[in-house]
Design goal:
heterodimer; A: 109 residues; mainly alpha; Helix Hairpins; 4 helices; B: 167 residues; Four Helix Bundle (Hemerythrin (Met), subunit A); NADH-quinone oxidoreductase subunit K (chain A)
């Protein structure tokens, strides 16, 4: 483990940024193209995770533990968000017998 | 060999996250999402952020994924009930995502950060170091996050309770 992490010095920081940008974009595409509310939630989780990884990479880069503390807070927030969100989805399913988010467009009026 | 591990795991995480959004069956999406989170845990280990690796493993792969799978199986969703958007919307969505990534990469090219990632302090991501940070300058946000979790718990219970019949 010690050897591996000291050898990791070779990866440039911008490759981490590229990776996180790609995964964030995959999450955005998932939100835009899917209609299943639960899959949309999973895409949001993907976006949150991409940001988490980038915060950790920057924290290691600048030798500052605050970034990793922020990641911890984001994880707590994601857990809360998923609990409430899935409760809302179960509620919607109970009332409409579907989790197609297009059913919810009647909320507009 | 060292940096190859990063590129191998990075390729895996991109492939698995693509499978998450393109799998037809929502159950398969959840399983691919678990694999994606596993590759993220490997990334944290490679960055020597051991506390975050453990928390990611327990919270995401344990708690959140069980919640997702539980709800999917509770609602009995499978490929037959999966709503699908028209191909036009899908193409427009992918094009919009492509525009986003082009913008992000373009702005990154202007920034030119090419310095390699060097772990100056090997104990940076260990529990001892993060605990001192968490209970020192970040004590108030930490306590507030416990309040947030309590509110989320109360909200989830309240939402999933069946409505009482109006008297």
């Amino acid at each position: 483990m010690e050897n591996l992490t000291t050898q990791m010095a070779g990866v440039p920081l911008n490759h981490y940024i590229y990776l996180c940008a790609i995964i964030f974009t995959i999450g955005v595409i998932g939100v835009l193209t899917r209609r299943n509310a639960i899959v949309i939630f999973m895409s949001v989780e993907l976006m949150l995770n991409a940001v988490n990884l980038l915060l950790t990479a920057f924290s290691v880069h600048s030798n500052d533990p605050s970034g990793q503390v922020f990641v911890f807070f984001i994880m707590a927030l994601a857990a809360a968000e998923v609990a409430v969100g899935l409760a809302i989805i179960v509620m919607v399913y109970r009332n409409t017998k579907s989790i197609d988010i297009n059913v919810l467009n009647r909320l507009k009026w | 060999m060292s940096t190859q591990v990063f590129y191998f795991v990075a390729t895996l995480s991109i492939i698995f996250s693509l499978m998450v959004i393109f799998a037809k069956n929502p159950i398969h999406s959840v399983l691919y999402l678990i694999l994606t989170f596993f590759t993220f845990t490997v990334h944290y280990v490679l960055l020597n952020a051991q506390f975050l690796a453990v928390v990611n493993f327990i919270v995401y792969m344990g708690a959140i994924m069980v919640l997702f799978l539980f709800v999917l199986m509770l609602l009995n969703l499978n490929k037959e009930t999966e709503p699908s958007k028209s191909p036009l919307i899908k193409i427009v969505g992918v094009i919009a995502g492509g525009c986003l990534i082009v913008t992000l990469f373009g702005s990154l090219k202007a920034a030119t950060i090419t310095s390699p990632l060097i772990l100056k302090n090997p104990g940076l991501g260990l529990v001892e170091n993060l605990g001192k940070e968490l209970f020192g300058p970040f004590l108030l946000p930490f306590e507030l996050s416990s309040l947030l979790l309590l509110a989320a718990m109360v909200g989830a219970v309240l939402l999933s309770k069946k409505d009482e019949v109006e008297a």
